[in-house]
Amino acid sequence: MKIVIIGGVAGGASAAARARRLCERAEIVLVERGPEVSFANCGLPYYIGGEIQSRDKLIVTTPERLRTRFKLDVRTLSSVEAIDRKHKKVRIKELESGRTYDESYEKLILAPGAAPMRPDIPGIDLPNIFTLRNLQDVDRIKRQANSGIKHAVVLGGGFIGLEMVENFVKLGLQTTLIERNGQVLGPLDQEMTQPIMQTLLAHGVKVELKQNLSSIEPIDNGLLLRFESGLTIQAEMLIVGIGVKPETKLAVDSGLKIGTRGGIWVDDSMQTSDPDIYAVGDAVEVKDYVFGYDVIVPLAGPANRQGRIAAENAFGGTSHYRGTQGTAVVGVLGKTAAMTGASEKLLKRNKMPYRKVYIHPAHHAGYYPGSESMTLKMMFDPQSGLILGAQGVGGAGVDKRIDVLAVAIQAGMSVYDLEEMELCYAPQYGSAKDPINMLGFVASGLMRGEHPQFDVEVMLAQDAATSPYVIDVRTAEEFSLGHLPGAVNLPVDELRSRLSELPRNRTIAAYCQVGQRGYLATRILRQSGFETSNVGGGFKTYQMHHP
Amino acid sequence: MKIVIIGGVAGGASAAARARRLCERAEIVLVERGPEVSFANCGLPYYIGGEIQSRDKLIVTTPERLRTRFKLDVRTLSSVEAIDRKHKKVRIKELESGRTYDESYEKLILAPGAAPMRPDIPGIDLPNIFTLRNLQDVDRIKRQANSGIKHAVVLGGGFIGLEMVENFVKLGLQTTLIERNGQVLGPLDQEMTQPIMQTLLAHGVKVELKQNLSSIEPIDNGLLLRFESGLTIQAEMLIVGIGVKPETKLAVDSGLKIGTRGGIWVDDSMQTSDPDIYAVGDAVEVKDYVFGYDVIVPLAGPANRQGRIAAENAFGGTSHYRGTQGTAVVGVLGKTAAMTGASEKLLKRNKMPYRKVYIHPAHHAGYYPGSESMTLKMMFDPQSGLILGAQGVGGAGVDKRIDVLAVAIQAGMSVYDLEEMELCYAPQYGSAKDPINMLGFVASGLMRGEHPQFDVEVMLAQDAATSPYVIDVRTAEEFSLGHLPGAVNLPVDELRSRLSELPRNRTIAAYCQVGQRGYLATRILRQSGFETSNVGGGFKTYQMHHP
């Protein structure tokens, strides 16, 4: 068997190592355009910021190591120019010498990755405008960032954009973040990104939302960015992190099927439209695990997994890729934001029925020092209770809870299963009722009709005729520091003795700070004959919707 | 409805709050022997050590708060002396006044907890010998620990014993830990406790295993502990933490069914043999989720859950308790040990077929600073791959992985599902191939026959005639620092060119440091016609078995 693999980073390197383990006698050629294979692309921003101090740390493995240990025929600084599917060979160009030659294959695995996008605007090719993909980019960015400049601009508030912002802040650079949309971290729901926004602002980052860059001009000490709104910003360097575009040129040129989203089409065995060619990683379209439609999800975990599967199937295996859940996490200046499965906005866009709950728990028992708070949001099917998606933002422990929910989604678990989860508990690690159990209690109470809940933004959008009578069941002091529009203060501990103050002819909405007292108030009122719902997630959730 | 609840800490307080939420009109009487309800029992050791500075923090809620918010009839310093099941009433004694009176119930919920055991030996009632159950115990222990003494002894190396040791070390006390068995943390498998042992020793704790205390004598400056082995130890205080005994007196006296393990018998609705009496928490027997037999598991999470279920069913609900998985975690001087599901020793004792794997991954990407290492062990069914149990020990991230595996066990997932898990990955949080994925790869490779593995202790126990030819595929330098008995060094990178040095008529065992190079060596050798297995978990696992 002779396998040629195009691309030697996450998916390609995984495929190559797996192929060798499966077959000692196979001829395995790994062709990589860059000088390195298998570098730590997710670590690049942290080397720029100095968190990772040694550049060598970014080299996960060397071509030499792959040759010795895995007996791979590694060809770096080599670009595949064309695929001749008929004769099953690829044309390889040695980038240093310019020499081209043909290499035959029995099976071909494409792992070309995705290229950073650049807006097509005047001035985009000026100096000191960078994208971030490989170590050469990193060297250039690091040089400029450490050249004595004071001000950096990041275009694009996605995962990589925010990681770059964090690292520029750590370098002491005044940093401006520009985002075209109304929120950072596009895959998350907007309100869940508010704590990240606040963190950015608290660290002195200037954030400009809903700004479209229209042109860039050279000025004396750098660049002048002009926006459609009329805004102008001066910058000494600009990082463009507005997303990536799958590298499909080879696939297109050789007539392989391209999917509806513009990525290389593959089936669930990672096979392209040509049975002798597999494709993996950022360049391919895969199924969304929740929605079932095709998506392009440039994540390292799925790329590695797909690389393994492609290698197994190239040797006649029957491995299948189950689709991508989109589990993702980002750290931003001490805060964590993470998600898995469907977002609320995609559920809406796909007109899928759902309900949602919010909780604002502490990472671990409040009585043990150092407990950090978080917000968890979960979407689920209103009929079955099946968990559809979850998001978390806050301090320590967000990634742990999203991991648990990622497994729950994979397992097809419902909100009722969360009530029963038995997770690690000691006061440094969690709570006897873990945030996950609490999510289960709140969502199951909603499902069972025992704990009816208003979504705060839906409730506030109602017109005067149908809107509920809103009571704030927190203390007078809490109420005085801010409350929902039109709310009346009636502390939960006084509720039982003041029922006569409440209208019997209107629906009542009760709320507190995070939802717990509002839940008790709801129970008290419903059993006293009032049509009442709790405002899910309380005032804290309202504040995330109305920062 | 009138409900009487006996015991106001975890299970009892949960039941009371749940009962009120379910029914605003019910009369709910909560009877608690101590002066407090719902205190943070898992936090007690950390208040002694000073990590939790304020005693008030340990009071989760007050009787007054429960009265106001939940309209509970809370009676502290009140002991239930007897249950009259025929007339459905309990006899309550006010501990301060000595007055007794009867209180009727429609439903009764028992949450009496468990009492610390004390060995029945001479001198056990001398001063400065303590057990740890409530705030009064804590006050006494804290007073003695801070009285200028230098040396404390902890009897019992279980979860609470180790937490006490940690806190005595933090107080600067010279600390000795005595354990009757051959290992600390009895529920874990012995080899998995080795990193904890090393941590204890590194912090100057004296650990005496396999020591049976036979008597205690008063001496001038404290206590003289005499052991069956002849060992004597002087101590200025002694904490007895050798386990707890369910408080079943009330249940026994009133003729309720007692289970095979000595706890109060309940069905999966938490109902005792009397349909009007429920029981929850440390005093009851529940089903082990993996083995299906009855167990007594004194853990806060299950107690809370059972309290909710009992309250729901007391009001005619149909909630079921799914059994206890035994998920537990403990922090010891910067290290974490955690487990869920079946241990290897219990699988052996129950003669259940299983296979196991070990991995020694880093918490997060090695190239990002601060990555801490851990060991994970997983047991699974050799036919189906169903996950039966898991244990972890190490630094950051152990609790996260055990939580994920706890959910996998609850969901009935197999090792193959672990390969496909899509967990949070950014370099600060994990790896593109998370430790959980790695567990899946190693176990699935074993299941599929592609990655045969020896258990190191089984391999070493074989006699000379059948024992394999052992090769150490690490570097010469690693080999020189220690290796398996009888092993021959043959670095993996030289293996392909030195096959002729290996015997063709013997099974070969290949191993490396953690298992990865050994796996590759196994693949190379098997495909070259050698009957070869990898030594699972490598030299590091061997060292845990042979400290």
Give a nutshell description of this structure.
Chain A is an alpha/beta fold and 547 residues long.
What features would you highlight for this structure?
homodimer, 547 residues, alpha/beta, FAD/NAD(P)-binding domain, 4 domains, five-stranded parallel beta sheet, 17 helices, 27% helix, globular
Question: How does this model look, in words?
Answer:
2 copies of one chain form a homodimer. Chain A is globular. With 547 residues, chain A is α/β, with parallel strands linked by helices. The mean pLDDT of chain A is 96. In chain A, the strands form 8 sheets. Chain A has a 5-stranded parallel β-sheet. Chain A has a 5-stranded parallel β-sheet with strand order 9-16-10-11-12, covered by helices on one side. Chain A has a 5-stranded antiparallel β-sheet with strand order 22-23-26-25-24, sandwiched between helices. The first copy, chain A, has 17 helices and 31 strands. In chain A, a hairpin with a 6-residue loop joins strand 20 and strand 21. The N and C termini of chain A lie far apart (60 Å). In chain A, helix 1 (10-22) packs parallel to helix 8. Chain A has 4 domains: 2-115 and 245-314, FAD/NAD(P)-binding domain (3-Layer(bba) Sandwich); 129-242, 3-Layer(bba) Sandwich (FAD/NAD(P)-binding domain), CATH 3.50.50.60; 334-447, FAD/NAD(P)-binding domain; 453-545, 3-Layer(aba) Sandwich (Oxidized Rhodanese, domain 1), CATH 3.40.250.10. The interface between A and B is large, with 85 and 85 residues.
